[in-house]
Amino acid sequence: MVTVLYAGTRDGVVTVADQDGAWAIEGHALKGWEVHDVETVQGKPGRVYAGARGDGVWRSDDYGQTWSKPSYGKVAPGKVRCVTADPEDPDTLYAGTEPIGLWKSTDAGESWAEIESVRNFPHVATVTYPAFGVEPHLRDVTFDPSDPKTIYAALQVGSMLKSKDGGESWELLEEGLGPDVHTIVTDPTDTGRVYAATGRNLYRSEDAGASWKQMAMGLEQSYAVPMVMDPTDPSVLYSALANGTARRWAGREGGAESVLIRTRDAGATWETLPANPDMSQGFPEGIVFDPEEPGRMYAGTRAGGELFTTGDGGETWVKLDVTVPPVAKMNIAHR
Predict the structure, then answer these.
(1) Radius of gyration of the chain (CA)
(2) How many C-beta neighbours within 10 Å does residue 129 have?
(3) Residue whose C-alpha is closest to residue 57's, from 172, 136, 130, 141
(4) How far is CA 97 from CA 100, 157, 225, 314, in A?
């Protein structure tokens, strides 16, 4: 079995594979484009989607060896910030865009239709973004595991939207929640429990997003992007926190000064894990679990594009002998 890693980076999507214990880059596609998301599809191990900020959604059906844009020449999303597959239908995709928009495809990306109800939701018109060159955008899309018609959408910078009817209508979730939402994670065993990683710490909701409380407080670091749940135990989650945004730590000697943290009790308490110094400096923005090997995770850093792995649930990390452009997202497959 060969492990294949997909790294969405600031310069395209990179495919990295383990060949008899030695890691090597097998492909580097979409060069020149920021790829903020890479999405694998359950039941179709060779298929992976890449969302390019400016060039739409691309697809590979051969483990990242070759790529095509199924919607080429058609009306489709452009500045893509996230791509999510429907958990019950691998050919149904959702793409979040910049400026804020949500698109849906029911034929594996061949054609797309905009879900205009998001753009027309009154709150969206009030959202602003505090950095030059970036517009407000839809950063992440997540489903209620028990009901794919219930959709959570992260807005940057505008908190979170929720639809209970597949996108026909929306409600704003902001009670106690920071506005700069990056990642949403739902608990497959408890539909009321939802987690969020934001630019101002981590949050948990016990009432399906109606209200929120902060987690992992008391640390010097607070800027969070990744959040992943252990596929074997939903009470175990991991995140990484940086000391300030990338604009603040880009030229700092210690870089991101980030910490890797873990909870074993659904967010009630968090512990700081040992981390490779290069990982702490570079900030592991992309983290992914290996579903085939309990305790195995991979991480890629935003500054430096270094890749790491752990086989003991994050207690020890080893750097892979591979460097890619700055990482935004990681995903995994096996062939």
Answers:
(1) 18
(2) 17
(3) 141
(4) 6, 13, 17, 32
Contacts of 242 (CB under 8 A, 6+ apart): 221, 223, 224, 249, 256, 257, 258, 283
- Grouping H, G, I as helix, E, B as strand and the rest as coil, residue 281 is helix
Report residue 99 CA to chain centroid gap: 18
Yes or no: say if 330 and 38 are a contact pair by the CB < 8 Å rule. Answer: yes
User: What pLDDT score was predicted for residue 35?
Assistant: 98
Summarize pLDDT for 254-307 with one digit per residue, the tens.
Answer: 899 999 999 999 999 999 998 788 899 999 999 999 999 999 999 999 998 999
Which DSSP category does 146 fall into? T
Question: Residue range 79-93: average pLDDT?
Answer: 94
Asked if the bond preceding 124 is cis, omega within 30° of 0, the reply is: no
**If we measure between CA atoms, which residue out of 176, 171, 177, 143 comes closest to residue 157?**
177
Calpha distance 108→93 (Å, rounded): 7
Over the chain, what is the mean pLDDT? Answer: 95
Output the pTM of the full model: 0.96
Q: Rounded CA gap, 65 and 36, in Å?
A: 19
Q: What angle do CA 228, 234, 240 make, to 5 degrees?
A: 25
Given a cut of 90, is residue 246 above it in pLDDT? Answer: no
CA distances from 144 to 57, 88, 243, 300 (A): 23, 11, 31, 27
The answer to whether residues 321 and 16 touch, using CB atoms and an 8 Å cutoff, is no
Token representation of residue 74: 């058609």
Q: Which two tokens stand for residue 322?
A: 């591979």
For the chain, how far is it from start to end, CA to CA, in angstroms?
6
